[in-house]
Hints:
Among the domains are: 45-118, Tetratricopeptide repeat domain (Serine Threonine Protein Phosphatase 5, Tetratricopeptide repeat, Alpha Horseshoe); 138-209, Tetratricopeptide repeat domain (Serine Threonine Protein Phosphatase 5, Tetratricopeptide repeat, Alpha Horseshoe), CATH 1.25.40.10. By secondary structure, it is mostly helical. The protein starts with a helix and ends with a helix. The chain has helices at residues 3-40, 44-58, 62-78, 83-95, 99-109, 120-157, 163-176, 180-193, 198-207. The chain crosses the membrane at residues 6-25. Keywords: Membrane, TPR repeat, Transmembrane, Transmembrane helix. TPR repeats lie at residues 164-197. Belongs to the TTC36 family.
Amino acid sequence: MGVGALLQLGILILTLSLFLVMAYLRNQTLLHATTRSRNRHPKPEANRHLAQASRLLALARPRDARAALSEADRALSLNPREPKAHILRARALRLMGHHAAALRSLDSALWPPAVRLLSTADRVEALVERAELKLAVNRRRRIDSAVEDLVAAVELSEGEGVESEALCLLGKCYEWKGMKEKAKEAFRKALDFEPDSIEARNGLDRLGP
């Protein structure tokens, strides 16, 4: 075969290689775009599982928690990054008494980039729930982390309706840490949001003048 023919064959092979590489990159781009779109807009079937899990958990009965957990897992199988499914899974596990596993599910819900898909109200509730679980799993080791979650929840809340709950728990955390003045401040702020809060008044009574 002459030099000219070999050169032409080389050019043809190079052209085909470039075409295949470009086609592969284009397909990968389309695949990633489709995946992102699915994560932003869960399938109707995933939404159906989320709604069913919510209904079961609203009954607040341990016997329904397992069914709610199954519905949340089905939703996650369709959309693994859906934070609401992780939150519902955590609530079901908590109702079943599996606090450590519930905490891991809330970590998944509040981990970037999933947390960006949550509304402010959902994020605040998840932060408070995670703080409660941290204290339930290991108060001594996790109290500082729980305080961080509660402070973030109060800052984000802006009238979401959980300020008093978050502030009362924050006051208890400061009380456990021996930070008397900070605890008093948290309980007083809780009373600003909910003047009839028995928990906040009891906290102030415990701490004294």
